[in-house]
Predict the structure.
Amino acid sequence: MNCIIIDDEKLARVIIKTLCKEIGSLNILEEFSNAMEAIKYLNENKVDLIFLDIHMPNFNGLDLIRSLKNPPKIILITSDPKFAIEAFEYDFIIDYLLKPLELPRFKKAIEKAKTKELKSALKTTKAKLDTNDIDNDFYINIDRRLIKIDLPSIYLIEAKGDYIKIKTENKDYVVHSTLKKIEDKLPDSLFLKIHRSFIINIKKIIDIEDNSVLIQKDVIPVSRSKRPELMKRLDLL
Amino acid sequence: MQKPNLEYIDRLSRGDKSIKAELIEVIKTEFPKEKKEYYESLEKKEFKKIEENVHTLKHKISILGLEKSYEIANQFEHNLREHSLDKKEDFDKILIAISDYIETI
């Protein structure tokens, strides 16, 4: 985790750095003796965790918290337990440590920060997966009817003049469109244009021989220029 | 009065002499400056500033293992919020004890 330290007292900063070294997985990017310099830094740099002293002259730690638009995780460090109640109003405040810092309690706070980071990463991954689910199908317009097509079921798309032929495991569809238009809607992870007239679902390939692929019962030509990309995408033993 | 000690510093440095030396060096450099600022604020009777100075010095008091003195500093800090200098003499004695001690380390 990339961290910064904000504390007006040098001794406090040295102690935090010493404890961070002891833990090992923390990378101290910068340290600041006042909040204003830290804000400037935070506006231009991404950090995962801030060790923040509350009691600082002029612009204190709580002022800093209120001024941040997208605050990272924060561990508050101070001698004043009275600030704890306000601090925990913010969900990015991970923990509240009292000076003088001791290693076991410090470790516990770092564990909390790591757990929070893990949860947040899982949430992001889940959101991405959900988005992928949404993009897993699309609609085609045939005779004023919108028909839903499941993307993984498509094995071949063929250009035919002003039309394209979409072949799925169950049915074929002829749609007034271009290969270029549909190519933009397809996920790169599944589909590849292997010829100016053909897009294939690479997961459906049965075999490849010289300059052609067998996909379902269709033998499709592979352009010489597309062959390296196709070979790269295959899981070769 | 309790005597200052390096128990916390020893615990933190876990036998690493360079860490211990660095921590002591910072205390020896930072403490006199903070003490000076405290007396300057006292001269000017700037209570808010004195309170901040006491707050900063309080950390060094706890680092040097002076638990009872830390309580006195806490009370003094609280009194300063009320613009009272009650506990000042006790607090000053703590500063003298620390000044004497850091000369020896």
Remarks:
- The CA atoms of residues 78 and 98 of chain A lie 5 Å apart.
- The longest strand of chain A covers residues 154-160.
